[in-house]
Amino acid sequence: MIPQSFIQDLLNRIDIVSVVEKHVQLKKAGANLLGLCPFHTEKTPSFTVSPVKQFYHCFGCGKNGSAIGFLMDYAGLGFVEAVQELANSAGMIVPDDDQRFTPEERTEKKAVSVVQGEVMAQAERFYRQQLRQAEEAITYLKKRGVSGEIAARFGLGYAPDGRDGLRTLFPDYAAKELQESGLVIERDPNEGGASANSRYDRFRDRIMFPIRNTKGQVIGFGARVISKGEPKYLNSPETPLFQKGNELYGLFEARQDIRDAGYVLVVEGYMDVVALAQLGFPQAVATLGTACTPVQVQKLMRQTDLVVFAFDGDKAGQSAARRALEASLPYVTDNKGVRFLFLPSDHDPDSFVREYGAEAFEKEIKNAVPFSEFLFDVITKGGDLNTLEGRARAQYVAKPLLQAIQPSALRLQIVKKLGELTHTAGDELESLLGLAKPAVKKQRAPQRQSRPQIVSLGRQVVRILLMYPELVPELEEEERSAIEQFDPDDAQTLSDIVNATHALGENVSFAALTEYFRLSGRDYDHLIAEVMNGHDFDMAAARQQLKGSMRQIRIRLITEELNDLMASGKALENRQYVLDLQNEQRVLQQQNIEDKGVS
């Protein structure tokens, strides 16, 4: 894990406005900046960035977070990747989580990545230039209906048909970076031959498809043979820059189109992605010749709430869909969905659209098989639910699949349906499958009519402390107890803020605190929205408002206690205590009057 202290220091050095405005046009709106949300389609700006809070929030779709969260949501980066990118821009070095590497080794690793990245960028430019004079390759692309605009969008290129075509680009053809980047292959010396001829280009006489990471950097290539030859498709090997199971072809190019469409379409080949973009479906991406992985699904879920997998309807397509289903299990929730589109066995997405039209393909996407339906197909396949053995087998198959799904309303519905199919009561089935039940919030007793004002005051306190956690040390234990007497929800929230502030230390801030809550799985989106929607005020005003709110809470507690003493007839026997309470009440009220006079 990256130390929390480093994350705090990073957030304190980074200005979220400079991070966001690279991707979103912002205009001044009072103390904040306003723009069109990059995460959903809107005509009226509802996306707010606060320089004071170092936080963004969209009042339309609810997306919010720190500069780290923005890069994760917008660019589809993982947490570590987002921290690394921000750290690079701030000139900071991310400490290794287990300190396996010395500072010198980390510096060397970073230098190697930079060199390999530059080598890949040069190769991409070379292949693009070669395509301009490769008539056979141009003819092939035209036959596939690829326009010059789409070729430029994806940076398509051509690897010339020669043993060492890259030698013209890299005079030092023996450089180790060429082999480490996967651009050349070193022949085994035991095979014989002169050492000068032991190295040759990996890609020859092929259409080149640059594979980019979420930052747009070329990290690998996919290549398709033009005429006859095997393999039909060839990928870059695994390198420090490129891991097939972590990347998706076309994701960088499709990010905005995915948001506009409201879903991402996952297909099997590079050419399908390029062809679909030409035919009006630019929200398509492709896996890289391997089965879909959980990392890929997670990246897609950061871009959209719906992932549609498109497969052939044959046996191989069903098998690939099963693997995609398993990869999706940890990320499917009540608001994040997956669907499965099975095309006729004689069609791929490209050929289907060309034969039946874009509207027909759009209809197929809308009618794609829901996640739950395909899940039950997998669970019940090959079993007879009319027999005890068949029902037991279905439960056996379902157990690891359902355990991988997060506790949610969706999983509850799936368990309920499985119980009906296997004639098993819900509680018994949950126990049999070893499923943890979602936490249920306890019902509180009805509160007195005067309580809403008190709850409002408690909420005001937690909002102030969330915005300015630096004030937490000034909150006395008696004041925390006072809030606890009013409302358990506010007390729990307050406790979370206090504990998190102590854990983060002196460099705590609103952005660091909310990032801490996000990483720990606590959901305070509603409270964050309230803070973002409220008026910005400085630390001095916040401190004064906090003290005033706490006095108001104490005054109301005293009033309740005095009323209870009067109603119970115990006021006389506790006369001195009553006088002390009344005196404290007057002092607090006078302090409130004085504060209002100052303000």
Automatic annotation (TrEMBL):
Cleaved signal peptide residues: none
Q: Which cofactor does it need?
A: Zn(2+)
Any transmembrane segments, and where?
Answer: none
One Pfam family cited in the UniProt record for this chain: DnaB_bind
**What Gene Ontology biological process does one annotation of this record name?**
DNA replication, synthesis of primer
> What Gene Ontology cellular-component terms does the record carry?
cytoplasm; DNA-directed RNA polymerase complex; primosome complex
Enzyme Commission code(s) on record: 2.7.7.101
Q: Name the domain of life this protein comes from.
A: Bacteria
Give the co-factor note.
Answer: Binds 1 zinc ion per monomer.
Against PROSITE patterns, the record matches this protein to: TOPRIM (PS50880)
Q: Where are the zinc fingers (CHC2-type)?
A: 37-61
Q: Where's the Toprim domain?
A: 262-344
One GO MF term, please?
Answer: DNA binding
What is catalysed by this protein? Answer: ssDNA + n NTP = ssDNA/pppN(pN)n-1 hybrid + (n-1) diphosphate
What family does this belong to? Belongs to the DnaG primase family.
Query: What HAMAP family would the database entry show?
Result: DNA_primase_DnaG
What the entry says about domains is: Contains an N-terminal zinc-binding domain, a central core domain that contains the primase activity, and a C-terminal DnaB-binding domain.
- What role does it play? RNA polymerase that catalyzes the synthesis of short RNA molecules used as primers for DNA polymerase during DNA replication.
Query: Partners and quaternary state?
Result: Monomer. Interacts with DnaB.
What NCBIfam families does the record tag this protein with? dnaG (TIGR01391)
Provide the protein name: DNA primase
Q: Which species?
A: Oxalobacter vibrioformis
Gene designation: dnaG
